[in-house]
Write a structure and sequence with these properties.
The protein is of the alpha+beta class. Helices cover about 25% and strands about 35% of the residues. The protein has a 6-stranded antiparallel sheet with strand order 6-5-16-13-8-9. It has a 6-stranded antiparallel sheet with strand order 12-11-10-7-14-15. It is globular and about 55 Å long.
């Protein structure tokens, strides 16, 4: 029986250039042995997520998320809860493409990214599960909390289409004065922290916000998050930490952060509402518990 693939693509991603390469992408996958069809996401709620779940339940062998990190996250949420999950391919067409960067997938050539899938090299990758009493969401690159971590979903999509990565930089400058520390309580493997923190990250790859040395010891399949808690809210000190990240990942030993691997993580906010960012998308508010699902999805990569 011939293998079936479904491309789920976001028409607004990649400054809307992705749609011009869809025929070439389809041809590459067809030559790779997949009977391939295409679905364009719509403004309807959970469009990509619902389609990913539908084709997985219909027995498709491969789902290709073609778009930015938000599109990938939606597809993950469609297939991660299922007992039988198709393989996942990525064609990055977003603004930062953090996840594709970590997997060695070309971020400036859509057709070459399709060839990564057609070449057939896969790995079993961890998936994060975030839940509280109201909801359960999944993520595959990063979970985060704190005012500055909200900028990825505060930037309007039309600005990202026009200005690309510069849209995030402009929004970050606007939000810097609001990055005050919050009182939080967190628990993780073998420890806990109660005190001030401006933000936290649970990373599953080495790339956070385009900074490839943020998690120098990252593994795709060890069943662990890399936890980073930034205790300072001073803008000068935050910039110093960013410079350490860029200078070989020297931030990991800095006393202003907590850096540790953990399989579980829980956060409570004792002061203000803390929105949680999952792969660049709003994922609900704290309190929230996080669990690492080891080697949960088979994904195509090039490293």
């Amino acid at each position: 029986m011939q293998k079936r693939a479904r491309i789920i693509f976001n028409p607004t991603s990649g400054r809307e250039t992705l749609k011009n390469k869809l025929v070439d992408i389809l041809n590459v996958l067809e030559q790779g042995g997949y009977e391939t069809s295409i679905y364009a996401t719509t403004p309807a709620e959970n469009s990509a997520q619902n389609e990913a779940r539908r084709v997985a339940q219909a027995g498709f062998d491969l789902v290709v998320a073609a778009g930015g990190d938000g599109t990938i996250n939606a597809v993950i949420n469609g297939i991660a809860p299922l007992e039988k999950r198709p393989r996942l391919g990525i064609i990055p067409a977003g603004t930062t493409n953090d996840f594709a960067r970590a997997l060695g997938i070309p971020r400036d050539d859509f057709v070459e990214a399709a060839r990564v899938i057609a070449n057939g090299q896969t790995t079993a990758m961890d998936v994060g599960k975030a839940s509280n009493q109201k909801l359960t969401h999944y993520f595959i690159n990063i979970a985060a909390g704190g005012r500055l971590t909200e900028l990825t979903y505060d930037v309007p999509s039309d600005l990202k289409t026009v200005f690309g990565y510069m849209a995030y930089l402009m929004k970050a400058v606007e939000m810097l004065p609001q990055a005050r520390p919050m009182d939080i309580k967190v628990q993780y493997d073998g420890g806990s922290y109660a005190g001030k923190a401006s933000m936290f990250f649970l990373a599953m790859t080495n790339s956070v916000g385009g900074l490839e040395q943020a998690v120098p010891n990252a593994s795709l399949s060890d069943g662990k998050f890399t936890m980073i808690i930034v205790k300072t809210g001073n803008m000068v000190e935050i910039m110093q930490l960013i410079m350490k990240v860029m200078n070989g990942g020297r931030h990991v030993h800095d006393s202003r952060i907590i850096y540790q691997e953990t399989t579980h993580f829980s956060v409570k906010d004792n002061q203000d509402k803390m929105p949680i960012n999952l792969d660049g998308e709003y994922g609900g508010d704290a309190p929230m518990d996080f669990q690492n699902l080891k080697e949960h999805i088979e994904i195509f990569f090039r490293i």
